[in-house]
Design goal:
- The structure holds two protein chains of two kinds.
- Chain A is built from no helices and eleven strands.
- By secondary structure, chain A is mainly beta.
- In chain A, strands 2, 4, 5, 6, 9, 10 and 11 form a seven-stranded mixed sheet that branches. Chain A has a four-stranded antiparallel sheet with strand order 1-3-8-7, with no helix packed on it.
- Chain B is mostly beta strands.
- In chain B, the strands form two sheets. In chain B, strands 2, 4, 5, 6, 9, 10 and 11 form a seven-stranded mixed sheet that branches. A four-stranded antiparallel sheet of chain B has the order 1-3-8-7, with no helix packed on it.
- Chain B contains no helices and eleven strands.
- The radius of gyration of chain B is 13 Å and the shape is globular.
- In chain B, strand 4 and strand 5 form a beta hairpin.
- The chains are: A mainly beta, B mainly beta.
- The interface between A and B is medium-sized, with 23 and 20 residues.
Chain lengths: ~110, ~120
């Protein structure tokens, strides 16, 4: 099983600042990585896949990069609605997928 | 508009059984693989099971294999998860999610399953 790790576990950021979240795979997953945002009491929402293609309706302040085992999600200027938990997910072994443990982005 | 609505969750004793349902609308249900994903309270996401559009291909996570059964009824636009021999570690919100070759662009709101000892 491919194990996904994310860092940091918690990221404290002020509104308007840039946030950079990292995700690492235990073995190469090529570009088969997605990012999800989850707010309390809600289902996850797909943000980015492939690993740099924004899903429908996702604003351009969200961007993804990386390949192989190292990936990054960047939120260029944090808005109030962006404070949430972010999960990375590999689908190289589709349909058996694995998620990272999440990074919580909270208000500094 | 794609909609997925889960139901069937609740409180069940350890060793008991439960059947979850997911009602789909807004798309051609039989054309899509479907998944169950769960999230234990305060924890991360775990893929549970996948079923192809025709039901010809089915996969399970090792943690539920032999205890859970995924199925679908394309005539009723519905997805199911029969859960037997439930354990405390199965306590979670269970989501159905439409498959997009590995990415989940559409999720239900989830249904909570609580297994008590």
């Amino acid at each position: 099983e491919i194990v996904m790790t994310q860092s940091p576990a918690t990221l404290s950021v002020s509104p308007g600042e840039r946030a950079t979240l990292s995700c690492r795979a235990s073995q190469s997953i090529s570009g088969n990585l997605a990012w999800y945002q989850q707010k309390p009491g809600q289902a996850p929402r797909l943000l980015i896949y492939g690993p740099s293609t924004r899903a429908t309706g996702i604003p351009p302040r969200f961007s993804g990069s990386g390949s192989g085992t190292e990936f990054t999600l960047t939120i260029s200027s944090l808005q109030s609605e962006d404070f949430a938990v972010y999960y990375c997910q590999q689908y190289n072994t589709w349909p058996r997928l694995t998620f990272g443990p999440g990074t919580k982005v909270d208000i500094k | 508009e794609v909609q997925l609505v889960e139901s069937g969750g609740g409180l069940v004793q350890s060793g008991g059984s439960l059947r979850l349902s997911c009602a789909a609308s807004g798309f051609t249900f039989s054309s899509y693989g479907m998944n169950w994903v769960r999230q234990a309270p305060g924890k991360g996401l775990q893929w549970v099971s996948y079923i192809s559009g025709s039901s010809s291909t089915i996969y399970y996570a090792d943690s539920v294999k032999g205890r859970f059964t995924i199925s679908r009824d394309n005539a009723k636009n519905s997805l199911y998860l029969k859960m037997n021999d439930l354990r405390g570690e199965d306590t979670a919100v269970y989501y159905c999610a439409r498959d997009g070759s590995g990415t989940y662009g559409h999720w239900g709101q989830g249904t909570l399953v609580t297994v008590s000892s």
